[in-house]
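User: Can you recover a sequence for this backbone? Please restate the input before giving your answer.

Assistant: Of course. Working from this structure:
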């Protein structure tokens, strides 16, 4: 969560309006049609807002390298006849994601880049996104849904994932719980496979090894499975809130079959050298998730989640997920009155269905002034409890949890509410980010010895293998470049 002091809904709504300007009533161009003027205008309007929602565009040699690879693969599509027709951005987000919007705007998160192991994989991911644009998948999804808002599906996806398929879920998802990682469409399985096929064609025409599409999908599937196990989730396919591209594991074999007999370069060592030093995981400027604790050195705050819940740190909110409840921690405009603040959060939820707490109570949590309210909301034959719990950190600064639990179980998050605290400057100074360190394997190095250098207290070897695309039985050899994750400024 960044230091931005605005409700997440404000920027999300603005972006929805920007992308909603695309007229979908007319014929949709085919994949051979270059970028149209309306698509270019649409992308140009949405681009700065998308950057803001995904942590901002990174600069420097690493970002320039990603931009160069992306533009090279993008021209293979015929959407534009020059690299200047495209805008490729490396964004400062800790989730594995890549996406593109009409107008030739292509994005990948730094976290997804750290998972890759060669330049062909980077080109494959970016080419896949270009293919979605060339095939006009966003427009086709929206036309099928009979809506003219490019982001409308994103809100519905979040609602079903975060709150279940119910009217209140959609209302809350659209009004307040839309995380920054859900601002692009979730495509159908057929569209994903279609984009894989096109992406492989782009790889082949650019001289890359087309099999890279399969290897990067395999790495993403392995990372999703590892994350699920470490977070205690039953569903190991992927955390839906963190990626717009479902089920990578099922697409690996299809990609391998499509690339059979094709060859090309991977540029592995060049790639690894160029991405050396990328931030891995959370950026301290956005706060860090460490186990069950979230700590933000700039905002000087921390809290812990109950056992059995896991967190996702977005640009504008921290999402807390579990079987017995969902929540987000974020901020909003504050005029110095916590009760008004809590009422305003509830009011933002009441656009279609009136949601009011029975009362708003004040208290003190670890020396912080706090206020909270709980509203019982009927849901068919059952009901849910919606809780807003807010804290004052300064005369002009407050933060709050917005939580949803089954009726009668609003106490599920009590320990989390009571854990919010102000951290000392020394504790803030001790927060050190993780970085990617590309090293050369020595003659005496083994997977185990290299994994022991990973900056994690557990699952070191599993993390090392997934990071480097190694199976459970593969070894390393002297002279080979590999990635490890270390602590470093």
């Amino acid at each position: 969560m960044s230091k931005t002091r605005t409700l997440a809904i404000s920027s999300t709504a603005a972006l929805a309006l920007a992308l909603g300007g695309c007229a979908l009533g007319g014929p949709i161009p085919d994949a051979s049609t270059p970028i149209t003027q309306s698509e270019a205008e649409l992308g140009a309007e949405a681009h700065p807002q998308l950057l803001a929602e995904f942590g901002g565009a990174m600069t420097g040699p690493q970002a320039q390298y990603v931009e160069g690879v992306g533009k090279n693969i993008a021209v293979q599509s015929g959407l534009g006849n020059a690299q200047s027709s495209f805008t490729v951005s490396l964004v400062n987000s800790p989730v594995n994601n890549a996406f593109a919007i009409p107008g030739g705007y292509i994005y990948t998160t730094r976290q997804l880049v750290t998972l890759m192991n060669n330049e062909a994989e980077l080109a494959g991911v970016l080419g896949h996104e270009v293919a979605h644009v060339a095939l006009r998948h966003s427009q086709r999804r929206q036309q099928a849904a009979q809506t003219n808002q490019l982001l409308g599906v994103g809100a519905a996806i979040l609602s079903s994932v975060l709150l279940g398929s119910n009217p209140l879920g959609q209302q809350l998802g659209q009004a307040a719980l839309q995380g920054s990682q859900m601002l692009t469409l979730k495509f159908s399985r057929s569209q994903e496979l279609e984009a894989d096929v096109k992406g492989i064609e782009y790889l082949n025409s650019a001289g890359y090894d087309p099999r890279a599409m399969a290897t990067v999908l395999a790495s993403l599937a392995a990372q999703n499975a590892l994350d699920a196990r470490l977070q205690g989730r039953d569903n190991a396919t992927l955390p839906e809130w963190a990626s717009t591209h479902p089920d990578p594991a099922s697409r690996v074999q299809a990609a391998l079959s499509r690339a059979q007999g094709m060859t090309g370069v991977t540029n592995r060592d060049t790639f690894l050298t160029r991405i050396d030093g990328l931030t891995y995981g959370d950026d301290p400027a956005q706060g860090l998730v460490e186990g069950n604790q979230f700590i933000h050195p700039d905002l000087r705050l921390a809290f812990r989640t109950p056992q059995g819940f896991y967190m996702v740190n977005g640009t504008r909110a921290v999402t807390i997920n579990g079987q017995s409840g969902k929540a987000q921690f974020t901020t909003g405009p504050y005029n110095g009155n916590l009760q008004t603040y809590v009422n305003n959060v509830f009011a933002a939820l009441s656009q279609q269905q009136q949601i009011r707490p029975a009362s708003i109570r004040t208290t003190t949590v670890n020396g912080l002034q706090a206020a909270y309210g709980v509203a019982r909301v009927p849901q068919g034959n059952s009901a849910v409890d919606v809780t807003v719990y807010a804290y004052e950190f300064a005369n002009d600064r407050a933060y709050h949890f917005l939580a949803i639990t089954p009726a009668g179980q609003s106490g599920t998050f009590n320990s989390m509410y009571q854990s919010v605290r102000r951290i000392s400057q020394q504790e803030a100074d001790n927060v050190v980010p993780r970085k990617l360190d590309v090293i050369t394997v020595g003659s005496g190095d083994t997977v185990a010895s290299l994994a022991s250098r990973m900056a994690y207290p557990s699952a070191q070897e599993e993390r090392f293998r997934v990071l480097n695309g190694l199976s459970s039985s593969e070894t390393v050899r002297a002279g080979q470049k590999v990635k490890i994750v270390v602590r470093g400024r």
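That completes the design. Confidence is low (pLDDT under 50) at residues 4-25, 146-185, 236-244.
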